[in-house]
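quick one, 594 residues, struct below
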Amino acid sequence: MFGIKNGKQYREQTSQKISWGHWFAFFNIILAVIIGSRYAFIIDWPHTFFGRSYFFISILGHFSFIVFAAYLLLIFPLSFIIKNERTFRGVTVIIATIGSTLLLVDAEVFSHFNLHLSSVVWNLLVNPENGELSRDWQIFFAPMPFILLIQMLFSRWSWYKLRSLERQKWSRWVGIFLTSAFIATHLIYAWADAFIYRPITMQKSNFPLSYPMTARTFLEKNGFLNKEEYENTLEQEGRADALLIDYPKRELTFAPSKAQPNILFITVSGLRYDAVTADKMPQLNRFADNATRFMNHYSSGNDNNAGTTGLFYGLNANYTDSLLNSKTPSVLVQKLQRDKYQFALFSATNFKESIFKQALFPMLKLTKTKTSNQSAVQNWLDFLTGDKMKQPWFGYLDLDLVQAMKARTFADSETEQAYYYEQLSELDSLLGKVFVRMEEQELLQNTLIVVTAEHGYSFQLGKDELRNYFARAQIQVPMIVHWNGLSARKEPKLSSHVDLLPALMTSVFKIENPISDYSQGHDLFNTQGRAAEWVFAANHRWNVIITPDGTQYHIDRRGNYQKYDRTYQKVSSDRPPLGLFLDAFNQSRSFTQK
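---
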């Protein structure tokens, strides 16, 4: 009889704790939504009514799910384990206070780094090597006692008002509404993702622990979505979750300058850092001997669009999708147009990369040629024989090694390398014709010539493998600059594609703005300044920090971290370089619109 009575009492107490837990979870949903509303002031605010409506639906749906999931995983089991109701409520209050405080801190982290809390970011915040930073972040734990007090007061009040609360009929409708908001959040995002509705897809990473549903595979199987058209749209217009860009930050001003040199960019997609030697490319090597040659130079990314972003915009490649989506022009191209430069643009691939037509040169009629290096070079030589001397010109010769390599299948790495060197030899002969013609017409004296590559070339790797591949062979490239203002030498300092634009704007166009207004790089031509401690490469997923010795630190949008040595072998690293990460975080999103 006593055992039956105790069992009945245990069930009643457990039922009471479970019922109280529901109301306590509801209170914390409201608190989480209030704290989470700060993300609205951090992210890009959508410009459409539907996009703004989705934000309010998603904040209710997401945080109601997160809080209720935490209740089911943590609080609900404790209802059966902890018999004393005061102890149970005390443990619950502590858990809720920690969760609310972490949400508060996450919002501040997101406003600074555009990343949510992770083990790497947490280590950065409490980094004892940077005491000032650590003290700054400790301030955001100051509200913790106040949050604890609020949680305790509601805990006590709701416990004694539990019977009254249980009689409230509106609670069921609130539960249905929040559940509907959660379901709607994922269904709406799945639709927006399939049809690339950017005011919604750009909100993908707004909230911590947010993984909105996509339904592309289902729609493809049922004939509602054409995969090829979808991928082509993303390639042309940028990824659906691209953020808005603020570039340049201020209006640019320039000092008067009488000298207007011609400018020639020659890019060779697939030109490796170790390709320019006397035996492999004698013509280009001879030209490099009379120019400034940057020996430790990296592209801004591992594909053509990413490398072009660094060269023409002076920005890291994680802005490429934003540039494509917003069709933001390059400040370099705008300055050339303002100074009435004549444009001579020739490509071996007919400018097939989306950044050319979408953002860089949409206003210009790009010259179409046969898709080959020979035809592009011949068109350039024809331009040199025309009447071009009345005004300065900007030439862009976009050559390609990858196209020929991908057109063939190779049995092994040795065969692939042999064919690659054959292509180098042919390309070198073509470049030799360009240099000879310019020398014959005495153009070398008044022309700034840049020879580089959007990215290098890695043997025996397919397209899918290359997507997130950042070995030296893929991102370390030649950078050769011939100009009267520079001496002929080999420069060992670490440099990047994003450093070229500041050099041109400073040395050629006499810009008066600080570099931080329009670029994330340094002046490539300023060899007297302090050498860079690191450079940055990226794609839509990974941010890669590269140090002078070739060591790489990779961190993705979710805060996942990897370390690689100079040979691109993964290295165990329990203690990441937190100070380095802090500098990279501060720079990487400096042109994001907020």
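The chain is about 50% helix and 10% strand.
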